[in-house]
Amino acid sequence: MKRIPIADNSSKKISDLNLDASDIENLRKIANVPIAQISLDENPNLLVFPREWNHYGDEIDKSCILSMSEQEISTGNIMGFVGVNDTQLDITSRFSKVQDYFLHYMLQKVFSINLFDIQHSISKQPIFDFLLYLFPHFLKKALAQGLFKKYKRYEYNDANLRGPIDVNRHIRQNIPFRGTVAYSTREHSYDNEVTQLIRHTIEYIRAKEQGAAILNNDAEMKACVSQIVTATQSYNVRDRNKVIGQNLRPVRHPYYSAYTALQKICLQILRHESIKYGQEKDKVYGILFDGAWLWEEYLNTILKGLGFNHPENKKHKGGFQMFDNKTNKEADIETIDRNSRRLYPDFYKDDFILDAKYKRLNNGVGREDLYQVVTYMYCQKAINGGYLFPCEKEEKSNKYKLNGYEGTIHLLPFLIPKSSNSYQSFVGIMKEKETDICNTIKGIH
Q1: What is residue 432's predicted lDDT score, i.e. its pLDDT?
Q2: pTM of the model
């Protein structure tokens, strides 16, 4: 397995990456191709987050994992690990030095993993770490839809006949007749191959160094684990390979839709070694995160404490209307927009609009981004708008007064430390920076 390191939003010459002909051939299979064209059904060992593309109108499905010319490889906002055959590309955040502390930190915050219970450590298997961070989130989401149940065939031999008689078994077991009948029934059961897969995953995680912290992260997680353990009374560790084989076909159930992603995470955890090293030819595998989505979700863990709303474009939740409904209903002529066009800023409250930007702003804010925030400000009558972006070196926040409108645009840099010698040190500095940015926003009137 050849691992090729590169940072997000960067370029490297192919000659500097020490690639051989097979590496170049493998990478060209995923280069310059929108993620939507790399079918996740054909490549089941590739996980892409967010799971719901265009969750906030970010068009991740149109993003390429990497761009590749004859001379160089370039990356965008996509981070994580992706491989084809025996070539693996490790796309770290551009804020990493040796260990990618920033990506780990954002994942732990977004997926609600207690940072201190993890003992501030990052293992030598970052792919496995990422899977562990994801497991509690998807377990909770699945169990919120109810414990998975399905019909299961049970065989009985008693006097309480409740199903079709199994003649062959009845003759074999009950001749001479002794007052019992052999029969079978189909009954709903919580102890099935899907819940067994989850149970095997729980026990597998429990045996790992970070397992106790993951499974006991909070009261809800403890309750979820207990629910699965109680439901899977037939659990036997020796059945693991059999259970994995029974789950190779994805769950397709309209009521239990969240179990599809959980099943995939469980399989990845239980098979992570074979996923990395035992690939089928030309299949794409790995774990990828949209940096813009992850940055936005991370900021939400901070800004919600300041009263900011975080609407969801894909689910049509939150946001506000551009046009007044009353005006449209009273009008006798064709209106500009009969649906009162709904707007979904990244973050907003009564007097403030904030846009999350993960990409570099070295060349300033783009025209479309600028017009978008100004439009949001006007429709919300907000006097403040701004851009919150990560930066690699100390920068001062700036503000710009709008002409013709009593509003101000703010550029708010968020310094990400790169010189930390340990994860514990990195976490401590990040907590300070989060406090600083909250105080800066509070101080804007």
Answers
A1: 94
A2: 0.82
